[in-house]
Amino acid sequence: MRSKGWGVLIAGPRAGARVTRSARNMAHLYGWLLLLPAAALLALFTHYPALGTIYHSFYSTPRANRPSVYVGLDNYQSMVEDPVFWQAVTNNLIFCIGTIPASIALALLMAVWVNGKIRGRGLLRTAFFTPTILPMIAVANIWMFFYTPDYGLIDQIRGLFGLPGFNWLGTRNTALWCLIVVTVWKEAGFFMIFYLAALQQIPPDLSEAAAIEGSSRWYFFRRVTFPLLMPTTLFVLVNAVINSFRMVDHVVVMTRGGPDNATSLLLFHIYEVGFKFWDVGYAAALTVVLLAVLALVALGQFFALDRRIHYR
Amino acid sequence: MSALARPSIIGDALETAGAWLLALVWALPILYAFWTAFHPGEFATRFSLLAPWTLENFANAWNAAPFARYFLNTVVLVTMILAGQLVLCTLAAYAFARFTFVGHNVAFALVLVQLMIMPDVLIVENYRTMRLLGVLDTTLAMALPYMASAFGIFLLRQTFKTVPRELDEAARVEGCGPLQTLWKVYVPLAKPVYIAFGLVSVSYHWNNFLWPLIVTNSVSTRPLTVGLAVFSGSDQGIDWSIITAATFLSVAPLLVAFLLFQRQFVQSFMQAGIK
Amino acid sequence: MSKSWTTKLATAALAAALSTGLGGVAIAPAAAQTEVSFYYPIAVGGPVTKIIDQMAADFEKENPGLKVKPIYSGSYQDTITKVLTALKGGDAPQLSVILAVDIFTLIDEDAIVAIDDIVKTDEDRAWLKSFYPGFMENSQTGGKTWGVPFQRSTPVLYWNKELFKEAGLDPEKPPRNWAEQIEFAKKLTKRDASGNTTQWGIQIPSSGFPYWLFQGFTTQNGLRIMNTAGTQTYFDDPRVIEALQYWIDLSSVHKVHPPGITEWGTTPRDFMERKIAMMWQTTGNLTNVRNNAKFPFGVGMLPANKTPGAPTGGGNFYVFKKSTPAQQEASLKFMKWVTQPARAAQWSIDTGYVAVTPAAWETDVMKKYVAEFPAALVARDQLQHAVAELSTHDNQRVTKVFNDGLQAALTGAKPAEQAMKDAQREADRILRPYRR
Amino acid sequence: MSEIVVAGITKAWGGVVAVDRVSFTARAGELLVLLGPSGCGKSTTLRLIAGLEEATAGTVQIGGRDVTQLPPSARQIAMVFQSYALFPHLTVAENIVFGLKVRRVPAAERARRLQRVAELVGLAQLLERKPAQLSGGQRQRVALGRAIIAEAPVCLMDEPLSNLDAQLRQEMRAEIRALQQRLGMTMVYVTHDQTEAMTMADQIILLREGRIEHSASPDEIYARPATSFTARFIGTPPMNLLRLADSLGGAAIAASNGPAVLAGHGEAMLLGIRPEHLRIANVGGVTAEVVASEYLGADTVVQCRIGDQSLSVRGAGHLRLGKGTPVRLTWSAEDAHLFDASSGQRRTDGPAMLAP
Fold first, then answer.
1. Span C161-176, mean pLDDT?
2. pLDDT (0 to 100) of residue B232
3. At a CB cut-off of 8 Å and minimum separation 6, what does D293 contact?
4. Cα–Cα distance for residue pair A292/D284, rounded to 1 Å
5. How far off is chain B from C74, nearest CA to CA, in Å?
6. Runs of H (alpha helix) within C63-189
7. Measured between CA atoms, how close is D289 to chain B, in angstroms?
8. Domain boundaries, given as residue ranges, for chain B
9. In contact, D62 and D2? CB cutoff 8 Å
10. Which of B81, C177, C300, C419 has the smallest CB count inside 10 Å?
11. CA–CA dist D270, D228 (Å, integer)
12. CA Rg, chain B, in Å?
C-alpha cells in the first residue's frame, strides 16, 4: 500500500495544490472502497427496504395459490377502513404526549440535581440511570408484577391507604398509561445523561456572573441554563419521538395490544399484521405510514427547530 | 451552584428530600423485584423482613429454560454485531473524515438516514430479505441489519476529524499507507470513543428484542431477551419469584458490569450523546 | 430436508460400495433409512423434551430403517412461524405438531396432506376412527381429516374446597349450571368493611385468548360459533350475545368476578393466593395447581346452561406435502405408534394433556392413575360435550377480531350486542374471499 | 463610602491553605491590584471579596458593612471574569442589561443606561450581535459594560486582559483606568502581569503562596521592595541579586576581586541592583565579563558574569559588546538594596552601601 500517490491522497488545501489527476482518482477510489462494506449493508437493510416497503404496499399479499398482484391503493383503502389502525395511531399519539414531555422534564430535573452539590449524588445517579441499561423485556416483566390486581406492589401500597385493588392493565382507560409510566421510568435516566453532559459543558463562571447580578437559581435556570440546553433538548426530543414509535417490547410482554387494542401501538400493529396474520402487503402499507412519520420528524428537526435555537 | 443566591436551609433540605424521594421511586421497582427473586414464592406478594433468603428461584429458572444457551446466543450475537460495527464503521468513518471522493456528501446524507429509520421499523421488508438470503433463524440474520451503524460512522467520523493533520502527515512521511495510518494513528487516538461506542452498542443489542423475536424461532439462536419473553409468556400461569429470578439472570452480566464500572458507563453514554 | 436425504442416500451407497470393494470384509451398513424430521412445541411445563426424545428413540428401536428426528421448535406461535417460513425457504419438516386451529392456515398455504390420503389399510382407517370425536372436530374439514390429535386439552372448573366450606357450601359439589355458578360465587365473594372486595367468587381470565374460555359459554348455550368449512362465524347470534352478557354480568351486575380484563397468566396464582374461589382454566394446569395450592381443591366440568359444553384446545399432528411417500408412510407409522393406548396414556400422565382415545383410558396404567387422581377424569368426561375450538380461514385475524370484541364488551367500551355485531361484520369481511 | 477592608481572610480546602490571613484596605475610589505568580491566591482572594467562595476565617467589609456572610448579589459589586462569562445565547444588549433585569429595573431606565454604557465602552453599533460574532476586545468591552451598568461602587476584575493580544492589552489598560477614575469606582484588579500593575494601580498587593509579600504604591514597591522576591518580581529584566563575601574594608561581591561594596560584614546578605542602575565605566567599578547581549532598540540588555554569578545590565542605545569582553560596572550607593539571604527580607539595619 505504499503507493506514491498516497502522498496526495489525503484531501485538503495543502495536498490539493499538487494533486494530479491520477492521484485524485486514487482518492475517489480509496474513499469508495473504504465506504463500500458499510454502504452495501446500509443499502441492503435501510435504503432498499425503505423503498421496497413503498413498492410492496401497492401489491397484494402472496398466498399459496394466489401470487402477489398489483392492487394499487387497495392496501391503503383497507388501512383507512381498519379501526385497529386508527386506534393504534391514536394510541401512539397519546403515548407520545404521555411519555415525551414527562420523561424530558424528569430527565432535566434529575440532571440538575445530579450535577449539583446534593448529598449522595453518586447513589442518585445510579438510581436514575439503572433502568436505562435493563432490557425493556425485563422491565416489562417486573412492572407487570407491580400492576397485578390486589397483590401487586401498587395495589398493596394502595391497600395501606384502604383503597381497593384495581385491574390496571385490564382496564381500557389505564392500560396505556401503565405502559407510559413504564416508558418514562425507563427513559428519563437515559435522557438525563445527555442533559448531564450538556450541563457540564456550561462554564461555571456564567452562574457566578449571574450570582453577582443577584439572579435566583430559578431565574438563572430559565434565562440561561434552559436556553443553553436547547440543542440538547432538541436532540433528546427527536430521540424520544423516534423511540415512541420504535419501542413496542413492553406491549408484547404486558398487554399484547389489549384490552381490545387499547394499547396497540403502530409498530405493534405492523408486527401483528406482518407476523401473525402474514399479510405482508398490508403490513407494508402500514410501515409506509410509520416511515412518513419518521420523515416528518427528520424534516421538523432540520428546518423548524434547528434554526431557531442555533446561537453558536 | 453554590454561588447562586443561596436558598434558605429549608429550601435546600426540601430539594434534597425531593431528589431522594424521586431516586427511591426509581430504585424501588428494581429493589422489590430483587427481593422477590431471592425469597420463596409465598413471599412474592407479601413483604416481610423475616422472610428467609433463597437461591432456589434462580435454580428453578435456570432449569426450566435453556438460559445457558440463551446466554451463549446473546454473547455471540453481541460480539458479532460489535466486531462488524467496529470494522465497517471505522473504514467508513475514515473515508468520510479524510477523503474527498465523488458524492461523499450525498453518501454521508444517505448514511444519516439510518439515524431516523432504524432497522427496527423495517421488520417486514428485512424479514423478506433474510428469507431470500436463506439465513432466517440464524445469528447472522439478527446481526446483519445493525452492522453498518450510522451512529457509529458519525461518531467515529467526528473523532477522526479532530485528529491533527500533522500526525497523519508525519505517519505518511514515515512511509505508512492509508490503512496503516488508520491503524497506527487514527484508531489508537480514538480509543476512548471506541470504548464508549462499544458500551453503548453492547447494552443496546443485549437488550434488543423485536427483531430477534421475529427472525429467530429456535433455542439454538434465540437471545436472552426473546428467551425470557418466551419463558414468562408460557400458558401455564405466572410464578413471579421464578420470573423475577429469570429476569435478573438475564440482565445480571450487564447490571453487574454497570454497577462496577458505573463511571465509565455514564461517561461513555455522555460521550456518545454529545457528538 | 429432501436434499440432505438424497445426499445421505448417496453417501450410504458410496460407503457400501467402498466397503465391499475393499475386500468385502465389512458388513454393508443397513439399507437406506427413511428419516423424518419432526417439529414439536412445548406449551406446558414438565420435561417434555426428554419424553419426546425417548419416544423417538424407542420408535426407532422397534422400527429399524425408520428414523424420527425431533426438533423442539418453541411455543405454538414459534412453530407455525417456523413452519410457514421453512415452507417458502425449503428445509421444512415432514411432520409437526401445530395448533389444531391452524388447520385452515396450513391448508390455505397448501402445506399439508390429508391423512385420509396416506392411510392405506383398514387397520389404519380404524385407527383414525379411534379418537374422541370432540378432538376430531378440529381435525376435519371438507370431508377430509387433516390432523391427528396429540397434545390436547380442555378447560375445566377449579374450586377451593376450603373457601367452599367457609361459605357454607358443600366442598364436594361444584356449581352445575349458570344459575348455581352465580349463586355460589355470590356466597364466595367477600368484602371488607369499606366495601372493597377481598375475595372474588369466580375468575374466568380474558387476556390473550379470551375466545377459548368464552367458547365454553357459547357451547353451553347450544351453539357452535363457526361452520366446519371455516368460512362462516356466528358471533352475532343471540345465544352468543346472551352468553357474553352473562360473563359481563358476573362482574358488572353480580360483582362476583373482578372487573376488566383478567390475566390468563396470573389466574392460577390468584387462585393459590385465595383471591378467587373458583376459576376456569385448562387441564394443562392440573399439575401446577396440585403442586402449589396449599389447600384441597376440586376439579369439575364447566357448569352447564342449555347443555354442558367446552371447547377443546391444543395441538395436532400434521403431515407435510414436501415429503416423499416413504416419509409420509414413516410419519403415519410414528403417529400410530405414539397414539397407541398405552403410550397415549403414559403421555397424558406425564404431561397433563388429555389422552386422545377412549382406549387409552381403559389401560391399566391409566386406571391406576385415575384412581389416585380422580380429577384427571373430568376432562375425559367433558369430552363427550366438547366442540371444536374456533378455527377459520385467516384464523389469527378472525380470532383477533373476536377477541377484541369480547374485550371491548368486558371492559365496557361497547355493549355486548354492539361488540359482537362489529366482530361479525369484520369476520365477514375477512372471510368473504374464502366463500367462493 | 465604598472602602473595602479585608481582615485576616483565610481560605483552606481540606488541608491546603490557598489564602492565609490576608489583610488590606482598598480606599474608596482607589484601584488596587492583586499581583502575583499563578497559584499565589490572588484570584481566590478576589472571589472571597465577591462572595463566590466562603471564607474559612476573617472578614470582608465593603463600604463599612461586614459582608462576609452575604451572598454575592447583596454585596453591591460588579465583576469581570477572565473568560468574560458572557451568555452565548443572549445579544450584547441582553448581556449588558442582564443584571438590571434580574433587579427589575424598569425598561425605560434600562434602555437609558444601556445607551450610556454602550457609548462609554464603544459598543453602540454592536448591541444586537451575539458574543460569538465579536472579537476578543469587543467581548472584553461587553464584560466591562455589564460590570459598569449596575453602577455598583465596587468593581472586581479577574485578569480581564489576559486573553487579549499585547497591543489591545495596552489600549484596554488605559481605558479601564480612565473609566475607573471617571466613575470613581473602587476597583480590585487581579493580574500576574507586573506591567499592568505598575501602570494602573494606586496600590499594589503582591501575593506569594497565599500571603502578602509586599503592599505599597507602585513607586514604593519599585523603589524599596520589601523582599528579594518583590525585588525580582517587579521590573524587567528583574533586579540582580548578588551574593557577598567579606573582604578588605567591608564586603565585596563573591568571587569578584573587589572593590568593597558594603562597609561591614556581608556574609548571608544579598546585594540588589536593578539592571538600569548599572553603568559601564572606563575606570573603577567591579570587573565582569560579557556573556551575551540583547539589543532591544531603545536600549540593550547585556548579560554579564562575575565569577559564577550572572547579572544583567541595561544600557541606552546599541551597546556592541562581544562575548568575553571584560567590562567595569559601577552604580550609585543609593540605588543599591540589601536583603537577608535566608529570609529575603530587606535589610535597613545593615552596614552602609559603598559605591564601587
1. 90
2. 73
3. D300, D301, D302, D303, D319, D320, D321
4. 97
5. 6
6. 76-89, 103-108, 122-128, 133-136, 161-166, 178-188
7. 45
8. 5-56, 65-274
9. yes
10. C177
11. 8
12. 24
Helix, strand, or coil (residue A274): helix
pLDDT digits (tens, 9 = 90+) for C364-387: 998 898 888 888 888 888 888 888
Closest chain A C-alpha to C165 CA, distance in angstroms: 23
Domain ranges of chain A: 1-56, 74-309
Residue of D78, D73, D80, D76 lying closest to D141 (CA atoms): D80
Least confident of D171-175, D263-267, D323-327: D263-267
How many other CB atoms are there within 10 angstroms of residue A97's CB atom? 12
Burial class (CB in 10 A: 0-12, 13-18, 19+), C336: middle
Average pLDDT score over residue span A261-274: 90
Q: In whole angstroms, what is the distance from residue D225 CA to residue D234 CA?
A: 8
Burial C393-429 (b: 16+ CB within 10 A, else e): bbbbbbbbbbbbbbbbbbbebbebbebbbbbbebbbe
Residue of B63, B128, B217, B232 to mutate, testing the C interface (most C Cβ within 10 Å of its Cβ): B217
User: Given its phi and psi angles, is residue D249 left (phi above 0), alpha (psi -120 to 50 degrees) or beta?
Assistant: left
Q: Topology of B65-274 in CATH?
A: MetI-like fold (1.10.3720)
The end-to-end CA distance of chain D, in Å, is: 51
Chain B meets chain D (3+ C-beta pairs below 8 A): yes
Task: Give the 3-state secondary structure of residue C314.
Answer: strand
For A66-96, the pLDDT digits (tens) are 778 888 888 898 889 888 899 999 999 999 9
Find all residues with CB under 8 Å of B3, minimum gap 6, and list them: A204, A207, A208, A211, D52, D72
Percent of chain C with pLDDT strictly greater than 90? 18
* Least confident interval from A83-92, B195-204, C79-88, D210-219: C79-88
Which chain A residues contact residue C410 at CB under 8 A? 259
Domains of chain D: 4-229 (3.40.50.300), 237-340 (2.40.50.140)
End-to-end Cα, chain C, rounded Å: 35
C-alpha cell at D21: 490571613
CB within 8 Å: A206 and D85:
yes
Architecture field, domain C34-153+313-379: 3-Layer(aba) Sandwich (3.40)
> How far is the C-alpha of C410 from the C-alpha of D147, rounded, in Å?
70
Relative to beta strand C155-160, strand C276-282 is antiparallel
Helix (H, G, I), strand (E, B) or coil at C424: helix
Question: Grid coordinates representing A271?
Answer: 408486527
- Angstrom CA distances, C200 to A153, A174, C257, C259, C263, stand at 19, 21, 6, 10, 14
Report which of B232, B242, B224 is spatially closest to residue B37, judged by C-alpha positions.
B242
Query: What backbone torsions phi and psi does residue D252 show, to the nearest 5 degrees?
Result: -120, 165
CA–CA separation, D251 vs C343, rounded Å? 122
Type of residue at A34: L
Q: Assign a CATH topology to domain C155-311+392-434.
A: D-Maltodextrin-Binding Protein; domain 2 (3.40.190)
Sheet holding D250-253, edge to edge: D250-253, D240-247, D269-273, D337-340
Residues 3-32 of B with CB under 8 A from D: 3, 5-6
Q: Quick check: D217 contacting B, CB < 8 Å?
A: no
Angle formed at CA A204 by CA A200 and CA A205, multiple of 5 degrees: 150
D72 vs B: CB within 8 A = yes
Find residue D269's DSSP bridge partners.
D340
List every span in chain C annotated with CATH 3.40.190.10. 34-153+313-379, 155-311+392-434
Burial class (CB within 10 angstroms; exposed 0-12, middle 13-18, buried 19+) of A312 = exposed
CATH code, residues A74-309: 1.10.3720.10
Contact C270, C277 (CB under 8 A): no
Put simply, the answer to whether B237 touches C78 (Cβ < 8 Å) is: no
